[in-house]
Design goal:
mainly alpha, 12 helices, elongated
Length: 203
């Protein structure tokens, strides 16, 4: 089997998703120093979720000293998918040195998938002494979007534990009934993480 960099690079751009998936698997199974940038570049444009996830796995197979700076650079991209995939990848690498790159701008990004990925990355990377400050920023997003986005924000706040209690309690005093309902649903989820997520905007 041809595992040269040129072969993998070409396969990552193939029309069939199963070919791209195998190429991403090869990129991680047999890491080549010059292939990292190619894999990161592909994350910006790859349309298939499963291939993107394999690309992220491939990146984690490289030394964090190389991957973290390269992935952080993607956070400044004007392409939403580049930002969201980079955030997802940073959450999987789990290197705390990336924390300063998780800015308020990313946590409140106008692109829902970027913001969601930022919430997930933030709760993985945040230092203990900044958990309450992160919760305060996340609480500004109560009521945003619908459905899955509501649940994603609530789960992120639940992951912060007691550090989120004050921000969630304050949000329940909001004049906006959607914000109040979302905050109340988050409090219930924190009390019973296995419970169904019920969003009562009338509360």
């Amino acid at each position: 089997m041809d595992r040269s960099q040129g072969h993998v690079t070409a396969a990552l751009g193939a029309e069939r998703s199963e070919v791209r998936l195998r190429a991403a698997l090869e990129a991680g199974t047999y890491p080549m120093p010059d292939l990292l940038d190619v894999v990161i570049d592909r994350c910006r444009v790859e349309p298939d979720f499963y291939v993107r996830d394999m690309l992220t796995w491939a990146i984690t197979r490289y030394p964090a000293a190389r991957t973290v700076p390269a992935v952080i650079a993607e956070l400044a991209s004007v392409t939403p998918q580049a930002r969201s995939q980079a955030l997802h990848t940073l959450s999987k690498i789990g290197d705390g040195s990336a924390w300063p790159a998780i800015s308020r701008e990313l946590l409140t990004d106008t692109d829902d998938e970027t913001a969601r990925s930022a919430w997930r990355a933030a709760v993985v990377l945040v230092p203990d002494d900044e958990r309450a400050a992160l919760a305060a920023i996340l609480a500004t997003q109560f009521g945003r979007g619908s459905g899955d986005l509501h649940r994603s924000l609530s789960r992120a706040l639940v992951e912060l534990g007691d550090a989120a209690d004050s921000a969630v309690a304050m949000a329940q005093q909001s004049v906006d009934p959607v914000v109040r309902g979302h905050a109340a649903a988050t409090e219930r989820l924190a009390a019973d993480p296995e419970s169904a997520f019920v969003f009562d905007v009338g509360r």
